[in-house]
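Worked example
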Amino acid sequence: MSKRSAEPLEKDIQLKKPRTTDNHSPDCQDPDCEGCDIGEVEISFIRKNDQGEEENVSVQPTGQELLTMAKEEQGDTDMSRRLFDMALEQFEKEEQGKTGEGYAQCLVELGRALNVKESIQEGYDIFIGKESSKFVQLWQARAALALAQSIRQQKNKTFEELRLDLEDTDGEIEDEVALEKLIMKDQVSKEEIKYYKEALGNLDKILSQPFDNLDEQTLLLARQTMHDIREYGETLEQPNHEEHVAVLFDTLIRYIQHFPYENDDNLLTLWGASLLHRQKFVQGKEKEMICQRAEKLIQQAKNTYVSKYNQESPLGWELYAMLKMTQSNMAEDEDQILELYDESIQAFKKALELNPGNEKLQEMLELLGSTGEEEDDDVEEQ
C-alpha cells in the first residue's frame, strides 16, 4: 500500500517566505509591524543543520512535503494556493503524469481546503479509475464524503438565503407556513446519499478485516475518514435529515468500537461529538440518555488528554460547553437552567482561553453576551 497519505515533512526542510516589500496596508496601526502589505512573496526552501543553522544548499521538497506545507497554511490564502499548485506540479513530475495517487490526493485536499468542488471531483474520478487497494478505497471514501459535504454546504447556503428572505426588519419570521415548506424541501439529495453510502461501504470493507491485516498507515487513514464522516454528518441539520444522521453517526460509533478506544482521547472525543449531534434529533428520555452518555465520554476524553499531554483539551472544553448549553435548554427548574447555562459560558471561556485564535468560539461568546475577557475566566477542572 502507498504510504503517501501519512509521510511526515522532513524536519530540516522549512518554508521561507521573505517579503519583497516592507510597505504597510493603509489601515495598519501596529507600531511593531515590519510590513503587512505582502505584495509578491518569494518562496524558497531551506535546510538546517543540527545546530539550527541554514545550509547554503538548494532544496526541492517532495510533492507530499509541499502538500503538508499547503495544509499547514490553513484557509484560502494566496500562499496556500501557491503551495497546492507547487505540490500538484511536483506530484506530476514524480508520478510522470496527472493520474497518480499522490496527484489525486492533492486534488482532494486542495478542494477540501479551498472549497473547490471541481478539484475534489477530479481527484475522485482518478481514484475511481485506479486498481483497488486499501489506500485507493479509503481515499475514494474521503473524496466521496468531501463531495457530499460540498453539495450540502451549497444547499445550506441557499436555504439560509431563502430563510432570511422570510424575516421582517426585526429578524422575525413573517410566514411560518412558508418556512415549514422551505424546511420540507431541504431534503438530503440522491447525490449526497450515493456519495456517503459509497464511503461507508469502502470503510466497511477495510474495518471488517482483522486488525492484524491492517498496517499503521491504513488505520491512520481510516481514522481520518471517520472524522470526515462526522464533518459531513454535522452539516445535516433539518428534522427531515434524521434518518441520514442516524445512519452516519450510528455507523461511525460502530467503527469507533472496532478500535481500542478506552484510552484514546481522539476517539472518545469523536464519539462524544457524534452523540452531541445525534441528540438534536430526538426528544424526552432518549435525548436525556444520549446526553448523559455524551457527558461521560467527553469527560473521559478530557481526562485522557490531560494525562497524555499534561494540558487541557480546547476541543474537549468546547464540546463540554455545548453539552451544558443543551442540558440547560432541557432543564425545567429555573435554578438548574441558570446553573447549567453559567457552566456552559465558563466552559466556552475556558475553550477560548486554550485556543484564543478560535474565531467561532469568540463569536459564540459574543452572541451569548460574554466576551470571555472578564476576571472570572478561570474555570475549575471538571
Q: What stands out?
A: Residues 1-11, 372-382 have pLDDT under 50 and may be disordered. The chain has three domains: 1-130, 132-259, 268-382. The longest strand covers residues 44-48.
